[in-house]
Amino acid sequence: MQRRWVVEASARRGDLLLADDRETLAVETASEIGAPFVCVIQYARVHQLDLIVMGTHGRGVIQHLLLGSVAE
């Protein structure tokens, strides 16, 4: 089941970046399974990354206070 999620996420990411941007920008995407903050930290260390860009879900203020955000 989780493997299918990774495959679907990879396919959807491919649709988010325009072909022109894909050629001119050095963009790397990845899908990991596990606790988000742990996966992000491990991935950044392994790949010696200086910058990670993450989107948020655009939750409301109350949901944000209750659930938090990995992006922060």
Outline the structure in words.
The protein has 72 residues and is an all-alpha fold. It has helices spanning 2-16, 19-24, 36-46, 61-67.
Kindly state the percentage of residues in helix: 40-55%
* Number of extended strands: 0
* Bulk shape: globular
| H-E string | HHHH
List low-pLDDT spans.
none
Number of helices: 4
- From the helix content, strand content and strand pairing, which structural class follows? mainly alpha
Mean pLDDT: 79
Regarding quaternary structure, what we see is single chain
Task: Describe the structure concisely.
The chain is built from four helices and no strands.
Question: How would you summarize the topology of this molecule?
Answer:
Elements: H1 2-16, H2 19-24, H3 36-46, H4 61-67
